[in-house]
Amino acid sequence: MNQDIYVVIEHLRGKTADISYLMLAGARALAQATGGEVIAVLLGHNAQSLANNMAADKVLYVEHPALAEFTSDAYQRTLAGLIAGKEPRAVLFASSSIGTDAASVLSARLKLPLISSCQSFSADGRPICQICGGKIMAESDLPDTTTLLTMTPGGYKPEEGQSGKAPDVIKVEAPSLDNLRVTLKQYIEPEAGDVDISKEPIIVSVGRGIQNQDNIEIAEELARALGGVVAASRPVVDQGWMSTSRLVGKSGKKVKPKIYLALGISGAPEHVEGMGESEVIIAINTDTNAPIFNVAKYGTTVDLFDLVPALTEKLREVKKV
Amino acid sequence: MNVVALFKLVPDLVEELEIDQSGTALNTDFLRLIINELDDHAIEQAILLKERSGARMTVIGSDAEGADDVLYTAVAKGADQLIKLMGDPNAVINNHAMARATAIVLKELQPDLILTGVQAHNDLDGSIGPLVAEYLGMPYVGYVSGVNVQNGRIVVRKEYPGGLIAEMEVDLPAVVGIQSAEQPPRYVTVNKVRQAMKTAAIEERPLPALDVSGGAAIRRMFKPESATRAKMIEGSTEEVTARLLDIFKEIGAL
């Protein structure tokens, strides 16, 4: 085993995901503790140019037509050989639709330990993970063998993983990728026609605390009074109370409005990933321990069902004047 | 077609979570457990497949407070077979151990398709689905919000950020990690669940020996200390309303 930290670069349809740069920044912090290099692992087809702005000491590039788009089977096969052959100190994957499809399977296949939902590393290289919807942090020892980790946002910034100097790229031969058990049929674009919440300056967002579909009306009225639009967290969309186009978070849109008013949203990491960079976050939640208060600028534990109608009424009065 | 849905029970996040004296685990004394929400979606998706294609449906979970409720509720919704994995309640367990043990039980059932929630909020060593898949030598696709059986294979809708969907074709047998079912988990009345309790049987199977290798050794657990904690606005509804209006004015929203 060497002391290098590998980062499995995540890219989709020709664009590198922000989480990849964030992982390169995390890998740098870990490499400082282990004394190794930061090595980006890029799998793709005609994708070598994606490596140009990566803050890595080296990039290992695996080129194959079957790696043009992500499929779990092709990634697992390619990475299994590469990790077993190189034996790095650690391999970072994104805690995402792509990274988690690969990481757990590789842990089982290669009999290597896996630590998930890692947000940052301590100065001596211990992974610190965020669990229980952001309510609990867990610090683990880095096991003595090659360790696989999935990374969540929050600990590092994407800019820290970018560089103006293109790193050296070393081509690595792909394994046989015939007879894949998982294949991509097609992409289905998100529904168009609704407002694009990522372009709205004022967002009133509702979470599980809104309790039922009828109550969304009070959020809509507040949004109208403020001149904004409504959005939602995952549980609300999964219940079918609001359209997927209004979903904020890891699987939905990333928004950076001037004001993000979070009504009854607990602030799970998956949600914060989509709204944490809003200019001013105001959280209304009766649970004093809700993690949303760790990212909000202002917060109150007054019941939203009292506060929201009162606020709407006052706004209407003020705006009439 | 044999479809299996796996579930686990997780701490209810609505309750206050406390860290125990060891400092490395949650205090379980007053911990209320509920079904992992995404596993509930996996059960719903399995029922939808049963309704569409006449699959036989089995639900499997390990013994914990509330497991019987989940199993009887599943049978009231349409599940055919209920299995509860019985183990030492004090045993140290992680997802690697659970996946290895579950895979042994699953082998006997010869499932064509295994559905489980793509993640649980207390996963610390990856999620159960992909681990089970690899121990059984099956392909895995996660973050799925729709499954259809077509010509002996499945076509799944895999979610990417921003609402993009990738339609993927997967050979069977396979394991699928569900992000959400095609419709919200259905509601069944307490009466129907009670009726199920009278007629349905839960098969109790001993959990095979647990092997926790592959997980992490937790050194300490703690509650997040935020340097940027929100300024809390206290007071009556009227006072908070007035302060929020001031804030809106300060940031130029009014």
Q: What does the model show?
A:
The complex is a heterodimer of chains A (321) and B (254). Chain A is α/β, with parallel strands linked by helices. Chain A is elongated and about 70 Å long. In chain A, strand 2 and strand 3 (15-16) form a beta hairpin. Chain A has 2 domains: 5-172, HUPs (Rossmann fold); 197-320, TPP-binding domain (Rossmann fold). Chain A has helices at 18-34, 72-86, 99-110, 216-226, 234-238, 269-275, 304-320, and strands at residues 5-8, 11-12, 15-16, 38-44, 58-63, 90-94, 114-121, 127-131, 136-140, 147-151, 168-172, 182-188, 202-206, 229-232, 259-263, 280-284, 298-300. Chain B has one domain (2-206): Rossmann fold (3-Layer(aba) Sandwich), CATH 3.40.50.620. Chain B is 30% helix and 28% strand. In chain B, strands 9-8-7-10-6-1-4-5-11 form a 9-stranded mixed beta sheet, sandwiched between helices. In chain B, strand 8 (153-159) and strand 9 (165-171) form a beta hairpin. In chain B, helix 2 (67-77) crosses helix 5 (190-199) and helix 3 crosses helix 4. Chain B is globular and about 65 Å long. Chains A and B meet through helix 3, strand 7, strand 8, strand 9 and strand 12 of A and helix 4, strand 7, strand 8, strand 9 and strand 12 of B. Strand 9 of chain A pairs antiparallel with strand 12 of chain B.
